[in-house]
C-alpha cells in the first residue's frame, strides 16, 4: 500500500535562508511523486512532479526536489526563502497503475523576516 | 490556459439538507476526481470517475455521496443528507489520458450548520 510521511508539521526559516521540507514515501510499484502548495484560503497548485525521468526535478518559484529511491525520499528544497513562500506544502504519491493521489499530512512553512 | 472551475466557492447548508457541488473539468480530460480537506487536516481522496462510472472510491464515499457527469462538461458531487462532519473544502480534479498530473479546481468550502 502506498503512504506518504511528511516528517515536519511546521518548518520555520528566516527570509533568504535555505528551505528543506522532508518527505518519505512507500509504494509497491514505480511511483509518481508530486509537491503541491496551498496558500492561505487558496486552492492547490502543483509545484513539481517526478515521473521516472531525471531524479532532480525543478519546479516553479525556485523549488526543486530530488527523488532518492534508496532512501524512499522526495525532499523539497529552495536555496533562498522568500516571504511569499509562506504556505502549506503537500507531498503526494501516485502509482502508475491508477491515478489516485495519496497525500501527506502537509508541512506549514513559516518565513521569518 | 485551461483550468478546472468549481461552483459555488462557498456553500452553507443546514444539517440534513442535500447539496450539489459542481465542477467543470478541463475539456479534453477523461479522468475526474473529488477530494476533501477538513480544516486543519490532510487532503483525502473521495472518488475517481472514468468512462461514465466510478473507478475507485474511498471508505469516506458512503451511500450519502454520489457523483454524476450529467452532460459533456459538468461533474457533480451530491451529498444526500449533510452531516456536521461533512464541513470541509471539496476539491475537484481532472487529468487526461496518459497524464498522471491532476489539475485542481479552487475548491468549494462547504459549511454544515
Can you walk me through this structure?
The complex is a heterodimer of chains A (113) and B (113). Chain A is an all-beta fold. Helices cover 0% and strands 56% of the residues of chain A. In chain A, the strands form three sheets. In chain A, strands 2, 5, 6, 10, 11 and 12 form a six-stranded mixed sheet that branches. A four-stranded antiparallel sheet of chain A has the order 3-9-8-7, with no helix packed on it. A two-stranded antiparallel sheet of chain A has the order 1-4. In chain A, strand 5 (31-38) and strand 6 (44-50) form a beta hairpin. Chain B has 113 residues and is mainly β. Helices cover 0% and strands 50% of the residues of chain B. Chain B has strands at residues 5-7, 10-13, 19-24, 31-37, 43-50, 53-57, 65-68, 75-79, 88-95, 103-104, 108-112. In chain B, the strands form two sheets. In chain B, strands 2, 4, 5, 6, 9, 10 and 11 form a seven-stranded mixed sheet that branches. Chain B is globular and about 40 Å long. Chain A binds chain B through residues 32, 34, 36, 42-46, 49, 51, 90, 94, 96, 98-106, and chain B through 31, 33, 35, 41-45, 48, 55-56, 91, 93, 95, 100-107.
Amino acid at each position: 500500500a502506498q503512504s506518504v510521511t511528511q516528517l515536519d508539521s511546521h518548518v520555520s526559516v528566516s527570509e533568504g535562508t535555505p528551505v528543506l521540507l522532508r518527505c518519505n514515501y512507500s509504494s509497491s510499484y514505480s511511483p509518481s511523486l508530486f509537491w503541491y502548495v496551498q496558500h492561505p484560503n487558496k486552492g492547490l497548485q502543483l509545484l513539481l512532479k517526478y515521473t521516472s525521468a531525471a531524479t532532480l526535478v525543478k519546479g516553479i518559484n525556485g523549488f526543486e526536489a530530488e527523488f532518492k529511491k534508496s532512501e524512499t525520499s522526495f525532499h523539497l528544497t529552495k536555496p533562498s526563502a522568500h516571504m511569499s513562500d509562506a504556505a502549506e506544502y503537500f507531498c503526494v504519491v501516485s502509482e502508475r497503475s491508477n491515478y489516485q493521489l495519496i497525500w501527506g499530512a502537509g508541512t506549514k512553512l513559516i518565513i521569518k523576516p | 490556459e485551461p483550468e478546472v472551475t468549481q461552483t459555488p466557492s462557498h456553500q452553507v447548508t443546514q444539517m440534513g439538507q442535500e447539496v450539489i457541488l459542481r465542477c467543470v473539468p478541463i475539456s479534453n480530460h477523461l479522468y475526474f476526481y473529488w477530494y476533501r480537506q477538513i480544516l486543519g487536516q490532510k487532503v483525502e481522496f473521495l472518488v475517481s470517475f472514468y468512462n461514465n462510472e466510478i473507478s475507485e472510491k474511498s471508505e469516506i464515499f458512503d451511500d450519502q455521496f454520489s457523483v454524476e457527469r450529467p452532460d459533456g462538461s459538468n461533474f457533480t458531487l451530491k451529498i444526500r443528507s449533510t452531516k456536521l462532519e461533512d464541513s470541509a473544502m471539496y476539491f475537484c480534479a481532472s487529468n487526461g489520458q496518459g497524464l498522471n498530473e491532476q489539475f485542481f479546481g479552487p475548491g468549494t468550502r462547504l459549511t454544515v450548520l
